[in-house]
Amino acid sequence: MNMSWDLWIDYHRCDSDGLTHASVKDVGPGVRLVPGSCLVVGNEEADSAVAEVVSLEEHGVVLVRVLNGSVEDNSGRLRQGNHR
After folding, report:
1. What proportion of the chain, given as a percentage, has pLDDT over 70?
2. pLDDT one-digit tens code per residue, 34-54
3. How many angstroms separate the CA atoms of 74 and 52, rounded?
4. Residue 1 pLDDT level (bands cut at 50, 70, 90)
5. How many Cα neighbours within 13 Å face the side chain of 47?
6. 63 vs 25: CA distance, rounded Å
7. What is the model's pTM?
8. Burial 4-13, CB ≥16 within 10 A → b, else e
9. Are 65 and 19 in contact (CB under 8 A)?
10. Residue from 73, 54, 63, 50 nearest 23 by CA
């Protein structure tokens, strides 16, 4: 896992509600997934972004809402407890 993000996501795994589906297996060390909190998401093939954790579902599915704009644009939304 690249340590430039808190949660690895596939941006294409987006549902009709605009939520991206990720897995708790892909969270970085020490990162807590708390609904309502924001964290840095990304993958090897795309720019990182900030996403809000919407919910933790059965079978380790994490639903996040990726925010428009860059990580820098949304840095004020990152909570100290989640972001390195």
Report:
1. 89
2. 999 999 999 999 999 999 999
3. 11
4. very low
5. 9
6. 13
7. 0.87
8. ebbbbbeeee
9. yes
10. 63
Taking the C-alpha atoms of residue 24 and residue 7, their distance in angstroms, rounded to an integer, is 8
- At 10-33, the pLDDT tens digits run 999 999 999 999 999 999 999 999
**Residue type at 20?**
T
Parallel/antiparallel/unpaired status of strands 46-56 and 61-66 = antiparallel
Candidates 3, 31, 4, 18; CA nearest to 66 is 18
Contact 49, 4 (CB under 8 A): no
